[in-house]
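User: Fold both of these, please.

Assistant: Here is the first one.
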Amino acid sequence: MAGARVLYDFGMIPIFSYGSSLILVSGMSGLPLPVIDLSPVSLPQVDQTNINLLAAQLGKAFETEGFAYLVNVPLTFSHDRVFAIAKSFFQRSQADKLRLVKKSFQSNNSNTYRGYFPAQAGSDNLKEGFEVGPSDLPIAPEWAKERINLTEANVWPPEPVVPGFRRETEKLYGELQGLSSKLLSLLAIALGKEPSYFDHYLRGSVSTLRYLHYPAVNLPSPQQELCCTPHTDSGILTLLHQDSTGGLEVLTPDSRWVAAPYVPGSLVVNIGDLMAKVSGGRFRATYHRVRSFPGMDRYSVPFFFEPGVDCTIGGVDEDGGAVIYGDHVLTKMKGWVEFRDLEKSSGIVEHVAAVEPDIA
């Protein structure tokens, strides 16, 4: 292809740039997802032709697979740096982590939505996590009365315990929120709307950055073949850093589970249930799961873009059927393992306290 420059070559799927145009050569690899180059959103001058092309590519990916790889993302963080931040937290003692555990695991703690949740042995959602929201969101008094306060402040490990963790996490959060804003503009164009159509989603946004660690398991153990069971994401848009361990699997439109392997330097993006509804069914919220690998730890860092809790979410081309985002997510949350009242049934905090009594 004369004059074209290869940007990436993942085995048999080269991605070219030709002048200011993007050429994605697909159908030449075992990769199950489209690969989309985000270079146009980082150019100093907006080239509307390329922006429209990019919006069309993103829209097509979400109409078919519901997932895509993103390359040339406008982030200052390398993958290595992102996972170094995650590991700096998870490598602390269990006592340090449990001081930040959610109220559903330790009734003496006040944080209900942000903070740490431990891995639950025997669960088919075997993962521990730490999650944060925006650092500058006012706490809404009406939400403080709820069992789960979606507007609560973040909780953090002390600086001497995990040096630089809060500073780095807040910076990463800000960049991922900014990227989500750019993607929302592209989705608006793909749906035939003005780029600013979804701007009201950004007001009071309660997006979540979640660090996840899937501990190594020893198979065969039928209950641990999956460390995250099949599900669709509930919200608008998810951006995922995944490590080279692999394990992510996506359900194809013809009902096959296929691996979505790590692609160096990429993010995985997918649509949630609510965005599928907003699109009038054009976009697909795709089922996905995570498979365990014997003796291997896995780390991932998803960023869930979430509107404000009072944001009204409706279809782009229909009246009626709108939902308030806060009400929507609280309903969905009832089935999420990290928000169930587990303290009484699992005894996990009591068990750890008996081993490390200094958490009391």
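And the second sequence with its predicted structure:
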Amino acid sequence: MSIQSEICYAVRYVARNGRSTGSPWSLRQTAVYQQYNGSTKNTVWIFLQPSADMQRRWQEIQRSKVSSSHPATLHVVLLFAIAADWKDYIAYLRQEVDNLDKKACYSRVGRPHEHDYVVTFDDSQRVQNLRERLLRILNVLDAQLEVAEGCVMYCRGFNDGIANFDEAESLVELGAHTAQLRTHRRAVAAILDRSQGTLELLFKILEYRNEENLTKNGVALHKDIETLRDIAFHSKRENETLVKLAEQSKKDGRALKALAVLGTLYLPPTFIAVCAFPSVSMFR
């Protein structure tokens, strides 16, 4: 009995992008196609955008000539190569959440301190963007799990068709790969749950500090109003004093006028005549 089979799948995975700015990780995609002819024992492979690790593993397989006797086992090797960076990427995501979580957990409210964390709305946006990334990663891991389960069924199809094919060994390796993916998925889900608490706490801190600022502004405004009232009160008192001084000056002017009239009445007649008729010469 000869086996004629083919399998094709597309897989998204994470890989370092080598960029100096922004996130050092990117989501990428590769596709694998295999056709096996049991009569001729020939296998056709097609790879689309293989990762560097996949290419390296493939070259090692070609040099070891494992592919001629174990066509299904190669998928196990390729799947492990695709999932090689999950551990480092999840550690990167965990560190990002840790940095934001420190702000959320250790920021002070009601107790101003010069070395306190600066919490802004940008931090909340960063957490939300991170949560969206985590949700995409969960979908990617679910897709990889589906591919791994499909490869399990594909391996079982070679049970009676190929001599020297150790189905049990391949299934054990695929089981280990699947268990590893499930572990990664639980880790990402835990980070996602933790980020929800971080996001809520950051919002509460921003809300509390906003209320603090409003209270401080209200107190400052109240003080300004009181200061303006004091200024208005003192201005009123000064105006009243000026009015009184003006009335007093008016009274003083009247008194001086009366004194001038009295003084005029008691002046000598000669002085009055000279002042009244300066052009008249007086001879004794």
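The chain is about 65% helix and 10% strand.
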